[in-house]
Write a structure and sequence with these properties.
The chain has 565 residues and is of the alpha+beta class. 53% of the residues lie in helices and 15% in strands. Strand 14 and strand 15 form a beta hairpin. 29% of the residues are buried. Its main location: membrane. This is Mechanosensitive ion channel.
Length: 565
């Protein structure tokens, strides 16, 4: 008989306008909706049912539901959409289901329920569009069905023969059964003993107190299995790049397995209470998005690092300028993908929290305050991230570029969010904060054209024969393969003082590496040539011509004469 009654109720709820009491506006008095009657066919309303204000109505519904007094709680529903002949039979049943849906799908914040009959928003901010306005219909929250969102609303109705009262709207009542299919207890919970379904503390039942740690341990075990499985695959004879990728994604895959198993078990076997679900939902989304983002980013990192490490020598060549652009673009795309993942993850979390609900607004407000605090504390980090994107987009320093940073000749190896890793000529790794690199001047020897002019400066005695050294330099230039344009070589006397004259020897080179080696060979050749010319004194051994300043030799001689005297 009970199943027949329930089936009749489901059929009647499809057409909620069948009730005799039609709802209409109240004309000038817009503080309620007028109806012909309310819940006709139910027994007279008990005196302990208070529906004068939204808060009083919710208290009646909630505390009666906790006591499982459905005969009292059913008066808080607008049952005009149910056929009068079965209304009294299905009212307790629908009330029980609505209580389960609200308890499991929403979080009750009693501060949001007005204790005024007109529900006037007297304490709201002036920015609130409903501030100072009376209410006759209030949305308590939004729950998701399979294909659409459904609002849980209360409304203020005035029957012809009674005072205005607050009740759950007829639209909410019409959706109770559909919502119960999603937010109601699972079959596993229904099969549990009564003692496990009894309230424990807060909004938790005893089965939730037991199930939450068990589900967590099961998910943790799944994560451990995934971690070890990746480790076993790594130990096999796989290609080095595959092993490096597996090593990079081992932890994110374990995290993904943990979140996936936790979500599946929680979704198929258990339906937790509202506050627990609204906490676990955003947390699951956050961990899921984090795991996917880490997997994608680390795969790109492993491939990029492998390519750069293998091709770093080739990246310094002029013909590989396009390759340097490509690697730098990949690095920039990686960082942009991380930013997009963070924004998408944040949006998904806000959606999961149902920001239109009370808890959602509280979380959003808290997130705003916490965000301001973190932004102030991490302003240097944020500046580095923006500077990193600036370097990658403007390409002031590309992966593989040769730069001169504070006297260090380096190659750019990695461009990260907060720092740039460079390799110096003596195989040291320098970590430069990107904000430092952006705000200070540095030389990029690979930008546009890697050719470079190298010079050697010698301080010579005033009596040195510059033409003789010029001939020695021209002989060096003639045989040197790393001088690109031999017509651009120069020998110039660029200065002099009491100690001697300063002679500069200039030669162009195709790139910094070959230029450095050529410069060292050029210095060695010129010093040897100057020493040889000084010994021969223009071709005569023992000549008096000087090429190197004699200041130190004179002082030693004077000191020796003084000592002898």
């Amino acid at each position: 008989m009970r199943l027949l009654t329930i089936a009749m109720a489901l059929a009647c709820l499809v057409v909620s306008g069948m009730s005799a009491g039609a709802q209409s506006d109240s004309g000038p008095a817009t503080r309620w909706f007028e109806v012909d009657s309310l819940n006709e066919g139910l027994p007279p309303t008990p005196p302990f049912v208070d529906r004068d204000t939204p808060q009083a109505m919710m208290e009646t519904f909630w505390f009666a539901g906790q006591d499982e007094d459905w005969g009292r709680a059913m008066y808080t529903l607008n049952l005009n959409g149910v056929a009068p002949e079965i209304r009294s039979d299905v009212a307790p049943f629908l009330t029980e289901r609505l209580f389960e849906v609200i308890q499991r799908g929403m979080s009750i914040d009693w501060n949001d329920y007005s204790d005024r009959p007109d529900a006037l928003e007297a304490m709201s901010s002036s920015k609130n569009p409903m501030a100072g306005e009376t209410r006759r219909n209030i949305r308590l929250g939004v729950l998701e069905l399979q294909n659409r969102p459904v609002s849980i609303r209360i409304e203020r109705l005035k029957p012809e023969d009674g005072e205005p009262v607050w009740v759950f709207s007829s639209e909410t009542v019409a959706n109770i059964n559909a919502l119960y299919e999603i937010y109601g207890p699972s079959r596993l919970e229904q099969a549990m003993p009564e003692v496990l379904r009894a309230p424990a503390f807060w909004t938790l039942k005893w089965w939730e107190v037991i199930a939450l740690p068990l589900v967590f341990l099961l998910a943790l075990g799944a994560g451990g299995v995934a971690y070890k499985s990746v480790a076993r695959v790594k130990r096999r004879k796989v290609r080095r790049i595959v092993r490096e990728i597996l090593d990079a994604v081992q932890v994110p895959i374990a995290l993904l397995a943990f979140v996936g198993v936790f979500s599946l078990v929680k979704g198929f076997l258990f339906t937790f209470s509202g506050p627990v679900s609204q906490f676990l939902g955003p947390l699951q989304t956050l961990l899921f998005v984090t795991a996917l983002a880490l997997i994608a980013v680390r795969i790109v990192d492993a491939i990029l690092e492998r390519l750069v490490a293998r091709n770093m020598e080739d990246l310094t060549e002029n013909e590989d300028a396009d390759t340097r652009d490509l690697y730098t673009n990949i690095s920039a795309i990686r960082r942009m993908a991380v930013v997009v993942a963070i924004l998408v993850g944040g949006a998904l979390i806000l959606i999961q929290t149902n920001a239109a609900q009370t808890l959602g607004f509280s979380l959003l407000a808290s997130a705003g305050v916490i965000g301001l605090i973190l932004a102030f504390a991490a302003r240097t980090l944020l500046a580095d991230i923006m500077a990193s994107l600036q370097i990658a987009i403007a390409k002031t320093a590309r992966i593989g570029d040769a730069i001169l940073w504070q006297g260090n000749w380096c190659y750019v190896e990695k461009i990260k969010f907060t720092h740039v890793q460079v390799r110096s000529w003596d195989e040291r790794r320098l970590i430069i904060p990107v904000s430092e690199l952006v705000s200070n001047t540095f030389e990029n020897w690979s930008k546009q054209d890697p050719t470079i002019v190298k010079l050697v400066e010698l301080r010579l005695d005033h009596r040195a024969d510059v033409d003789a050294l010029r001939e020695a330099f021209e002989a060096f230039v003639k045989d040197e393969e790393d001088i690109t344009d031999k017509s651009e070589t120069k020998v110039q006397v660029v200065g002099h003082d009491a100690t001697g004259m300063l002679v500069r020897f200039v030669a162009p080179a195709p790139d910094p590496i070959r230029g450095w080696n050529m410069q060292c060979r050029m210095r060695e050749h010129l010093l040897a040539s100057a020493a040889r010319l000084e010994d021969t004194a223009g071709g005569e051994p023992g000549g008096k011509a000087a090429y190197f300043p004699r200041e130190r030799e004179v002082k030693i001689g004077e000191n020796m004469q003084g000592a002898e005297g």
